[in-house]
Amino acid sequence: DHHAIIPTEEPLILSSLSDKERKLYDLIAKRFLAVLMPAFEYEETKVTADIGGETFTAKGKTVQSSGWKAVYDMYEDDDDHEEDKDQTLPDLQQGQRLTV
Q1: CA distances (Å), 68 to each of 72, 81, 82, 83, in order?
Q2: Nearest to 43 by CA among 97, 96, 88, 94
Q3: How many CA atoms lie within 13 A of 15 on its CB side?
Q4: Given 3-state DSSP classes, what are the helix, strand and coil percentages for the chain, each rounded to the nearest 5?
Q5: Which of 19, 43, 48, 69 lies at 20 to 30 Å from 57 by C-alpha?
Q6: pTM
Q7: Mind listing the pLDDT tens digit for each residue in 90-99?
């Protein structure tokens, strides 16, 4: 964190910012809010399924608490890259039967 960048009471007029300035402002604001949030908590899950004699495996995360990631998820841009996202799995129980 860069502690010299702090919020002020100066009102912001977004329309006065260039596109690059607005993106920089958004980045700083998100980071400032994120450091005040609780931790991102998740459980890593590995699912192995036998379907028609074939074994399939999926790995992912089950989010317990979004924490600081909620700040970034709330303001996702269309420019975000899909491959950077974690694979999220539904809440499953061991031995649970799934319909395919």
Answers
A1: 8, 19, 19, 20
A2: 88
A3: 0
A4: 30, 25, 50
A5: 69
A6: 0.57
A7: 778 888 888 8
